[in-house]
Each structure stands twice: as C-alpha cells, then as structure tokens.
Amino acid sequence: VQFVESGGALVQPGGSLRLSCAASGFTLDYYDMNWYRQPPGKERESVGRIDTTCRRTNYADSVMARFTSRRDNTKKLVYLQMNNLKPEGTAVYYCRARYPGAGDVGSWGQGTQVTVSW
User: CA 34, CA 16: separation in Å to the nearest integer?
Assistant: First the structure.
C-alpha cells in the first residue's frame, strides 16, 4: 500500500491549488480516502474525507466550503481542490486510505508541501 502526494507549491493567500494522491497496492474502490495536513511545529490534523461512492464528503470546519475532494477510482487518483487558501493552510498534506468502519491502512507517504504566503 503506497500513497504519493503531489501538487503542493507556494501560493499567495486567496489562491488555489489542486493536490493529487496516487494510490497503489490495493483496490481503491473499496476504501474511503482521507486527507490530512501537518502545519509546521504542530500535530497532524484531519482535513477531509471522501467515501467510496464519491457521494459523501466530510471536511474540517477550518476548510469547509473552500476545499473539495474527488476521486477517480479507475486511475487510482484522489484530488483535493483547495480554494481561497489562507496562511494557516501552510502545511505538509497527506492522503491515506481507510476501509469503512476500520482504521487507516498503509504507511504515510512523503506528503506535499503547501506554503501560503506573500
């Protein structure tokens, strides 16, 4: 089970980025996908989740209405569209799979760095 995150960059406040997560080593169709982030000097935190059917998503209050996740099970890719980014969004972003009703599977990937700054 492997996750490779990409798409992070330096962006100005109010800007947008789309992160990608390439999943391998398991059948993505059967797993919810979670996004996490770890700001500098802080604990890793949950950002959002998209379920197996793509019909249900959940997001942290801090990113609600600004972040949207979608997935392409055929390509084994998951995306996180981030709009109206704020400086507090500076963090390393990670994705991970979770079997419904169970815990996360696989190891953490290397993450992708998002820096929101002038």
Answer: 20
**For residues 9 and 115, what is the distance between their CA atoms, to the nearest angstrom?**
6
- Per-residue pLDDT of 3-31, as tens digits, reads 999 999 999 999 999 999 999 999 999 99
Sheet of strand 67-72: strand arrangement: 2-6, 17-24, 77-82, 67-72
Which are the contacts of 64, defined by CB distance < 8 A and separation ≥ 6?
A: none
Residue 2 burial class via C-beta count within 10 angstroms: exposed 0-12, middle 13-18, buried 19 and up: exposed
